[in-house]
Amino acid sequence: SYSPTRAQKTPLPPLAAMAVADKAVAGGGEAQQPEPEPEPAAEASTFAELGVCRELVEACDAMGWKQPTKIQAGAIPHALQGRDVIGLGQTGSGKTGAFALPIIQALLEHRQPFFACIMSPTRELAIQIAEQFEALGSAIGLVCSVLVGGVDRMQQVLSIAKRPHIVVGTPGRLLDHLKDTKGFSLTKVKYLVLDEADKLLNLEFKESLDDILKVIPKERRTYLFSATMTKKVSKLQRACLRNPVKVEVSSKYSTVDTLKQEWYFVPADYKDCYLVHVLNELPGSMIMIFVRTCESTRLLALTLRNLGFKALSISGQMSQVYFCNFSIRQTKVFDFPIKALFGSAFIDGFRCCAAESEPKGEPSRIRFQKSAAKI
Predict the structure, then answer these.
(1) Higher-confidence position of 335 and 122
(2) What does residue 240 show for φ and ψ, rounded to 5 degrees?
């Protein structure tokens, strides 16, 4: 932990001297070269060139989407032609827009309740997806319902009673409502989206996912999006998709173009000191700090607050109500476990600083990522 007295007794070596080039790895030696990135899909300069209708082009402009991302340019034309789509891309590649725009455009032609069902592995991602659907469809009166755990079920029942066009949820809570909520059915769904499919196929979701797929009609369009094409994802593709087109815009080691990374190997005893130094070098920035455990989030947030930073701890032990109610724009520093799946929900707008804590006895490292990436 940070000790001002101890730090004053032993001068810290210059931070720049501890920097390690991107090609270096812990223990020395050359890093493994990344696999060659697949050829990018042909990019269109505007959404209109992809076949997106005028109403949605205007909605994209209002959201600040000036140009399609690679995965959007590759997936949207095929989706608008009625093809099933497999999209492989990293976080920040614009996957949500790649399936939301074709679905909303189809909804304009055939408006009906429960038109599409989107499943995600986490409640935070589900909320984020719903927000993008609502923003894109605000001008056409699109109604979206979010069905996730950790939220009062009666509120969700009232939301279902409004007969939303789009249902976004996690498998467990979605299945609960299919079993228990009168009048809720997915038997007329026209579109099914499995987002973060590689995570949806974990054991905790498998049974719920299988039960949901049994009640969704086979005559539908299916979009499967994932960061990687695992064996389980390939098996699901064969079972759920018909003659799909595959759009791949990322390699195993790729990151979004706007991500800038720096690594610093520092003495374990002074890791927190270096972290504080970096925070002081980024005045006025919104920063996220990732650590290994929930307990570490609380300890580090307390330390930073005592040093004068506006710091807030976020972890998986938070209640959903608390998580939804606090304002992220009022804080300067955030920290939560690196394993938390909802971490990516806050990337946009931050200059990111990720601090990784190594197991006891291992060399300590701090990894800095400066990003303007979009979700």
Answers:
(1) 122
(2) -110, -25
